[in-house]
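FW: tagging you since you asked about this chain on Friday. Here's the raw sequence from the shared folder, copied in full. Didn't touch anything.
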Amino acid sequence: MIIDPGEDAVAGVEEVVREHKLQPVAVLLTHGHLDHTMSVVPVCGDHGVPAYVHPGDREMLSDPQKWLGIAPGTPVFGKLEFAEPDDVKELTDGVVLDLAGLEITVDHAPGHTRGSVTFRTPGLQDIPHVLFTGDLLFAGAVGRWDLPGGSREELLASLARVCLPLPDETVVLSGHGPQTTIGRERATNPFLTEAAPLSVKPRGM
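HL: got it, structure written out here
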């Protein structure tokens, strides 16, 4: 699975695929911002695979500028034209995807964007639980909420509902920055402290 292929991601994806003799099966998008989707069309096209995105962010694939707070017609991206991949599948909250032998649970996590989601996998052998958070949760920080479709209140609620109930050993792989764990963020991240009163009881993966 390829998650959030951003700008200039094609060469890196191809290098990893060749080096490890992999066969991509899908592109998963945590949200629709360009730094996470810029290469989705060529990556999907090169491998004949679908892109998975929440319907709340699907429009960003073909019309990204207004969701970045940029007025229509502003020549920020030159003559680039944006379009959806040929095969787009929409995600829903709580759906479990069976891809590449893994069960991947999707949690709708609005706040950074309306259609932000996380992807979580159970532990396998010596591999711990993993949560791909996109721009919801970073090591020591969270994603911004001041762009169109963002909401600080929704982001805190998503942290409380999606992140805080997970086991401390859950590995967090975010859209930016270093790897962390839920336990580390629970203990040190001020935004999770603020979200804690909204949380529900812990759950397993």
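FW: The chain has a mean pLDDT of 92.
HL: agreed, and The helical segments are 10-20, 34-37, 40-47, 152-163, 182-188, 190-195.
FW: great, closing this out.
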